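dumping this here before i forget
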Amino acid sequence: MDNCIILAGGQGKRMKTTKPKVLLEVLGEPMLEWVIKACEDSGIKNICVVKGYEGEQVEAYVSARSGSADIKTVLQSERLGTGHAVMMAKDYLKERSDGNTLILCGDAPFIDKQTIEGSLELHKENGNAVTVVTSVISEPHGYGRIIRTKDGISGIVEEKDCTDEQRKINEINSGCYWFDTKALCEVLGELTPNNAQNEYYLTDCISLLLGKGKKAGAFTSVNENVSLGANDRRGLLALNDIARKAVIDKWLDFGIEFTCLDGVVIGNDVTIGEGTVIENNVKLTGKTTIGSGCRIMSGCMLNNTAVGDNTVLNFVQSNDAVVDDNVKIGPWVQLRPDTHIKSGVKIGDFVEIKNSTVGEGTAVAHLTYVGDSDVGSNVNFGCGVVTVNFDGEKKFRTVIGDNSFIGCNTNLVAPVKIGSSAYTAAGTTVTKDVPDGALAIDRNRQANIEGYAAKKLKARNEKIAKQKKG
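structure:
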């Protein structure tokens, strides 16, 4: 049974964070998540994560995520090298000794399905005990160098242990390996910290396996970023830039139009339909889906939001919402979780909608809050409407029938129902249900008090004069 060990115990001191390094994010997802997804995409379902610094955070993360993999964790209480980290998973490996083990670094997010599958195929074809995934880069400083032979490789030499000649080699160790699991278990206990770092190097397993007459090989990945990680915030920013550009390039190839790339961030799990235009300062994250022929204008931030076809969004912030076809929203609109905006709706500026359904063709022009409501089709909201959904202890729903007209500055105090084709007069506070076709009006008769302003102005001026004297 093939399985994977993900090394995730690093602290990343130069990151200056209380988070484990592997939980720092690239395009809004922890680096560890990138690595786990690559395994799942490759069909690897059995994963062991070796946690270390702030290991309870790693444990909480893998326990909470959903996915196809069965993930276990083990603790590396002391950081004594990559070999030592794998030693912590020895019991896990022994239970799965009839297959192959993939070793990955939890802070190298760009490992991919093609590299994992291609290296495993080579590993099996050549009958290797170990196959190292390598990459060829122009600036190999800091990486372990691959020592090639005519039959495979003779080992990996870490940067600090390299000779001057070995430092000229530009084929490097990516930190990714396939091992025959049984062979790996045989040599783990033979590792020693006899090196410049006084650590147990996983790379020493290669020479140990060769010494037992077993085969070692290398697979060169075409993914030039497969070995990239980050040791500080600059490095993390570089990873984000690389990932951001790669995702945008993918959508450019698919025919998506970008008017400007400034501030554009698109997550790995986002999908976009043909003919859609993305403007600057747009952030699309989570499981967001954008339909065809849309225009996502500047300032939009959409997370786990489904958008239909031919919809225009302008300065919209949306979380866990659904927006159907031919909708126009914005600017400065917030759609909160469990909101469903149906086809043909128009929503103007400074509107917030939460846990509500807004029916087809409805217009919510401006300065309005709709919360915990079921709104019918072709309803018109005047300016300043509020659904009063919370009494301090419980929340209640408002129901508005089709073709209703909600006047400016109406307060709808839930639970309340506005019937179909009903009206509310401007400034009305509605506390009782309104029948179909009725007008709800709740105002006192206007009274004008003559001379009131002069008296107030006189008192005000006297106060100001007194303050000046004082």
